[in-house]
Amino acid sequence: MPSRKFADGEVVMGRWPGSVLYYEVQVTSYDDVAHLYIVKYKDGTELALKESDIRSQSFFKHRKSQSSSSSPSRRSSSRSRSRSPGRPAKGKRRSASQSREHKDDKKKTVQETSLALPVLVLFKPSENNTKRYNGEPESTEKNDTSCIILEQKLKPDLEIKRVLEQYSLRSRKDDKKKEEICSEKKTSVTVKPVEKLPTKTKELEFGGRIGTFMMIFLLPATVIYLLLMCKQEDPSLLNIPPLPPLESLWEGRVFGVFLLWFFLQAMFYLLPIGKVVEGLPLSNGRKLQYRINGFYAFILTTAAIGVLLYFQLELHYLYDHFMQFAVSATAFSLALSIYLYIRSLKAPEEELAPGGNSGYFIYDFFTGHELNPRIGSFDLKYFCELRPGLIGWVVINLAMLLAEMKIHNLSVPSLSMILVNSFQLLYVVDALWNEEAILTTMDITHDGFGFMLAFGDLVWVPFVYSLQAFYLVGHPTTITWPVAAAITVLNCIGYYIFRSANSQKNNFRRNPADPKLADLKFIPTATGKGLLVTGWWGFVRHPNYLGDIIMALAWSLPCGFNHILPYFYVIYFICLLVHREARDEHHCKQKYGLAWERYCQRVPYRIFPYIY
C-alpha cells in the first residue's frame, strides 16, 4: 500500500475539480481504500482529491522565486527591443515605472477577487467566477435573467484572464513546447475533470450497525402489528392483538399473485413508450438514462383492473388475504435485498452508494451498497420507487372500497372512504405525472438500493399508507358534508404547497434562466448550483415537506377521533420528514459550506414556519 504524502491538518494547495485553479485547503482525513484525501476549503466546502491534484505550498513558492529571478533580464531585453530610437531615456524610465505600477494594480485586483489567493500553474484560467466562492455580500443574491448581473459576473473573469496572460508562471521552455504541440496537432488543450470516487462511509445513520440490525426485524413486525390492530373491534393501543398461527400468515397462491403483479409492472416498465431522460451526473461524470412512462403504466393497470371487474373478479380477495399479501411482499423484498447485496460485492468502486459503503455487512445490507443496480437497461431501484408499490397502493384502496360496500351492504361507498381514496389517488397520479422529478431526490442520488428502500417501496408504502382505507372497512365512520368540505380544503392547501414548491425547485434546477423565474433570487454556491431564497423556498427550507404533512393529516381526519390508529401515518410521516430534513441539513452543509450557512440565516425555519 503506498504511503500518504500529506498529513492530517496540513495546509496545502488543492486543485478545484474541473478547473485549473489551486486553492489553499486543509487536509482533514485520508481514505486508505480509494487513496483519496478529504480536504476542506476556506468556504467550508469538503471534497475528495487525488494526490496528483494536491501540491505543497513550497512548490508554488519555488516556482514564484524562479519566475522573479528571471524577470529582470526579460524586462531589460523587452525594453531594448521595443524602445523607439527617438524616445528620451527619462521618458523611458518614467514609462517603465508606470507600467510596473499598473501591473502591480492588476495583480492586486486578481488577488482581491479570488478565494485564498489561487495559484495558476496550467495553460488558461478557469471559466468559473471565483467571486462566488468567497461569500462576498454583494453577490449573495443573484438573478440569472438580468443582463446587468450577467455583465458584472463576466467582467471579473475577462479581467482575470487578460491579467493572467501577462503574468503567467510558466517558463519560456513550457511556452515553446506548447506552441510545438499546438502546431503539430492543431487542437486546443482541454483539461480533464477530476473523477470524484465514492469514499468509505464514516458517519453511520439510523443508529449504526445495531440500529440497522434492529430495524430489519422491527419494520416487518410493525406492519404486521398495525394490520392485526385494524382487524380488532377495539383497535386501542392497550388492546394488544394475539399472534395468529404462523401457517395462517403464508399462502402459496397469494405469493403467486404478488409475483404476477410485480412482473406485470416490470413488463409495463419495459414498454418502449414515454420519453427517455438523463439523470444527474454520477461521481465519474456519467449520466444514466431513464424511461419516463410511469403514468402510462398506471393507465394500462387501470385498464387491466377494469377488464377484471368486468368479468366479475372479486377484488375484495385482497382484503380477505391482506395479511398474507403483506407477508409475501416482505419475503420478496428480503430475497431481493439479499440478491442486491451479493451483486454489489462485484460492482466497481465508482458505482457504490456514498451512504452505504461503510464496510459493515449489516449496515450496507440495510442502506444499500450499490447506488444504481441495473440488469441491462432495467434500473431496479428506479422501477421499485414508483411502480409496484405506489400503483399497488391505489389498487389496495379500491379493493378496500369494494370490500366496505360488500360487508356493510352499501350501494355507494361511505363519504369517508371516498375522501380517503380520492385524496390518495390524487397524490399517486401527481407522483406518476411528475415522475422525472424523482431523479433529483436523495433516494436516487445518494441512497443505495438495499433492504431499506426495497422493503419501503414494496411493503411499507402499499400496506401502511393504505391503513386509513383498511381501518374504515372494519370501523365505519360517518362525517357530515360541511366536515368533508373542510377536510377537502385542507387537503387542497397541502397539495398546492407541495406541488408548487416542487415545481418551483424543479424548474429552477432545469433552467435557471427561464423568464418565468425572473423574480426568484438565489445564493450561488461553490458547486455551481443556487439556493433559492425567495418563493416557497424562502418561506421555509423544506416547503414540500410542509405540504406533505398537511395532506397526511387530511387523509387521517375522515377516520374520526375514536382511535389513534388511523393517525399512525401522519405521526410516522412527521418523524420521517424531520429525520430526512436532518439528513438533508447535514449533506447540504458539507456540500455547500459557507453558502448553506448564509442560506440558513436567511431562511431560519426548517419545515414549520415560526415553530421548527
Automatic annotation (TrEMBL):
<feature type="compositionally biased region" description="Basic residues">
    <location>
        <begin position="76"/>
        <end position="95"/>
    </location>
</feature>
<keyword id="KW-0675">Receptor</keyword>
<dbReference type="InterPro" id="IPR019023">
    <property type="entry name" value="Lamin-B_rcpt_of_tudor"/>
</dbReference>
<dbReference type="GO" id="GO:0003677">
    <property type="term" value="F:DNA binding"/>
</dbReference>
<comment type="pathway">
    <text>Steroid biosynthesis; cholesterol biosynthesis.</text>
</comment>
<keyword id="KW-0444">Lipid biosynthesis</keyword>
<dbReference type="Pfam" id="PF09465">
    <property type="entry name" value="LBR_tudor"/>
</dbReference>
<feature type="compositionally biased region" description="Basic and acidic residues">
    <location>
        <begin position="99"/>
        <end position="110"/>
    </location>
</feature>
<keyword id="KW-0812">Transmembrane</keyword>
<keyword id="KW-1207">Sterol metabolism</keyword>
<dbReference type="InterPro" id="IPR018083">
    <property type="entry name" value="Sterol_reductase_CS"/>
</dbReference>
<dbReference type="InterPro" id="IPR001171">
    <property type="entry name" value="ERG24_DHCR-like"/>
</dbReference>
<feature type="transmembrane region" description="Helical">
    <location>
        <begin position="560"/>
        <end position="579"/>
    </location>
</feature>
<feature type="transmembrane region" description="Helical">
    <location>
        <begin position="248"/>
        <end position="271"/>
    </location>
</feature>
<feature type="region of interest" description="Disordered">
    <location>
        <begin position="58"/>
        <end position="111"/>
    </location>
</feature>
<keyword id="KW-0443">Lipid metabolism</keyword>
<keyword id="KW-0753">Steroid metabolism</keyword>
<feature type="transmembrane region" description="Helical">
    <location>
        <begin position="453"/>
        <end position="473"/>
    </location>
</feature>
<keyword id="KW-0152">Cholesterol biosynthesis</keyword>
<dbReference type="GO" id="GO:0006695">
    <property type="term" value="P:cholesterol biosynthetic process"/>
</dbReference>
<keyword id="KW-0472">Membrane</keyword>
<keyword id="KW-0539">Nucleus</keyword>
<dbReference type="InterPro" id="IPR002999">
    <property type="entry name" value="Tudor"/>
</dbReference>
<keyword id="KW-0963">Cytoplasm</keyword>
<dbReference type="GO" id="GO:0050613">
    <property type="term" value="F:Delta14-sterol reductase activity"/>
</dbReference>
<feature type="transmembrane region" description="Helical">
    <location>
        <begin position="323"/>
        <end position="342"/>
    </location>
</feature>
<keyword id="KW-0756">Sterol biosynthesis</keyword>
<keyword id="KW-0560">Oxidoreductase</keyword>
<feature type="transmembrane region" description="Helical">
    <location>
        <begin position="206"/>
        <end position="228"/>
    </location>
</feature>
<feature type="compositionally biased region" description="Low complexity">
    <location>
        <begin position="66"/>
        <end position="75"/>
    </location>
</feature>
<feature type="transmembrane region" description="Helical">
    <location>
        <begin position="292"/>
        <end position="311"/>
    </location>
</feature>
<protein>
    <recommendedName>
        <fullName>Delta(14)-sterol reductase LBR</fullName>
        <ecNumber>1.3.1.70</ecNumber>
    </recommendedName>
</protein>
<keyword id="KW-0597">Phosphoprotein</keyword>
<dbReference type="Pfam" id="PF01222">
    <property type="entry name" value="ERG4_ERG24"/>
</dbReference>
<feature type="transmembrane region" description="Helical">
    <location>
        <begin position="479"/>
        <end position="498"/>
    </location>
</feature>
<keyword id="KW-0256">Endoplasmic reticulum</keyword>
<keyword id="KW-0752">Steroid biosynthesis</keyword>
<keyword id="KW-0153">Cholesterol metabolism</keyword>
<comment type="similarity">
    <text>Belongs to the ERG4/ERG24 family.</text>
</comment>
<dbReference type="GO" id="GO:0005789">
    <property type="term" value="C:endoplasmic reticulum membrane"/>
</dbReference>
<feature type="transmembrane region" description="Helical">
    <location>
        <begin position="519"/>
        <end position="540"/>
    </location>
</feature>
<feature type="domain" description="Tudor">
    <location>
        <begin position="4"/>
        <end position="62"/>
    </location>
</feature>
